[in-house]
TrEMBL record:
<dbReference type="InterPro" id="IPR011009">
    <property type="entry name" value="Kinase-like_dom_sf"/>
</dbReference>
<dbReference type="GO" id="GO:0004714">
    <property type="term" value="F:transmembrane receptor protein tyrosine kinase activity"/>
</dbReference>
<feature type="active site" description="Proton acceptor">
    <location>
        <position position="163"/>
    </location>
</feature>
<dbReference type="GO" id="GO:0007169">
    <property type="term" value="P:cell surface receptor protein tyrosine kinase signaling pathway"/>
</dbReference>
<dbReference type="GO" id="GO:0051897">
    <property type="term" value="P:positive regulation of phosphatidylinositol 3-kinase/protein kinase B signal transduction"/>
</dbReference>
<protein>
    <recommendedName>
        <fullName>Tyrosine-protein kinase receptor</fullName>
        <ecNumber>2.7.10.1</ecNumber>
    </recommendedName>
</protein>
<dbReference type="GO" id="GO:0005886">
    <property type="term" value="C:plasma membrane"/>
</dbReference>
<keyword id="KW-0808">Transferase</keyword>
<keyword id="KW-0479">Metal-binding</keyword>
<dbReference type="InterPro" id="IPR050122">
    <property type="entry name" value="RTK"/>
</dbReference>
<keyword id="KW-0597">Phosphoprotein</keyword>
<keyword id="KW-0812">Transmembrane</keyword>
<dbReference type="Pfam" id="PF07714">
    <property type="entry name" value="PK_Tyr_Ser-Thr"/>
</dbReference>
<dbReference type="GO" id="GO:0043235">
    <property type="term" value="C:receptor complex"/>
</dbReference>
<dbReference type="GO" id="GO:0043121">
    <property type="term" value="F:neurotrophin binding"/>
</dbReference>
<dbReference type="GO" id="GO:0005030">
    <property type="term" value="F:neurotrophin receptor activity"/>
</dbReference>
<dbReference type="GO" id="GO:0005524">
    <property type="term" value="F:ATP binding"/>
</dbReference>
Amino acid sequence: MPLLVLDRKPEYKVISSSCLHSLKDLGEGVFGKVHLSTYSSSQDPEAGKFLVAVKILKFCGEESAKDFDREASLLTQLTHKNIVQFHGACVDEKPWKMVFEYMENGDLNQFLRVRGPDAHLLEAHGGPMDPPQKLSLLILLQMARDISQGMEYLASMHYVHRDLATRNCLVGKNLVVKIGDFGMSRDIYSSDYYRVGGHTLLPVRWMPPESVMYRKFTSESDVWSFGVVLWEIFSFGKQPWYGYSNQEVIQLVTGGQVLPCPLATPPDAYQLMLNCWQTQPNQRSTMKAVNERLVELCSPCVKNSTLYLNVIE
Ligand code: AMP
């Protein structure tokens, strides 16, 4: 008998806790810990055993139950190669858990930081290890293209993300990038959010003027955030507007300022960012147009364009 009491049949797959075996911690978000686990389905032994990421919910009150149910139902509707797959939820015992596809290279922000030109400034993790391989321009563009494909799909489903940032994208096998977090706000990246009033945390550095001023979030505001994600990718995970306080960022953005071109970014890629940062939401590129341009830039026949004049060493 599930402990999560609903007045209807859940719209998501219910997974029994006995099918999961926890292996290690992967990280922690505002909603709780994330574990790497094995999953073996009792109903489908043919499927074998595979690795999954299990989000263990910290809060299990009545309000959280509604949020949990809403989020799990929504996640069930999303299926795309650039959206982290939701396998189902565990509600037969507390704490409740959500089971996701495991993305072996972790979150995109950390992934970029340890491979960027300033990686030596970061604390080394683990023992002696070879430095991770540098990322070519083509790989950076392919990562951006993956996210734009996921975002185009979300827009086609009339879903507004509101918190698109590299910290909310995950890197899997063969460096495929997927959008992986649909809940607002996180603990480990708390400096990326600005607290307004009591509990509201806003990712102001990723927000367009209309969202900062009127809290208006639309597919067009997601396009602006995508432009900031492109900037993060070409800056190897730097915080947008670093060196400025959140209050200063609000003044800059509402005063019409945009982020500068990151070092060694091809002009075509910066132009794409500028197209996402038009002040008027209806003047911005659509996610579809952004995706088409990125597909073009990733194709081998644009080798002679301005794109390859700058080389990232
Ligand atoms: P979150 O609760 O989504 O903020 O996740 C916290 C951390 O757990 C992330 O920064 C990742 O390092 C890790 N994580 C979350 N989901 C996954 C996943 N599907 N695969 C691998 N690692 C994950």
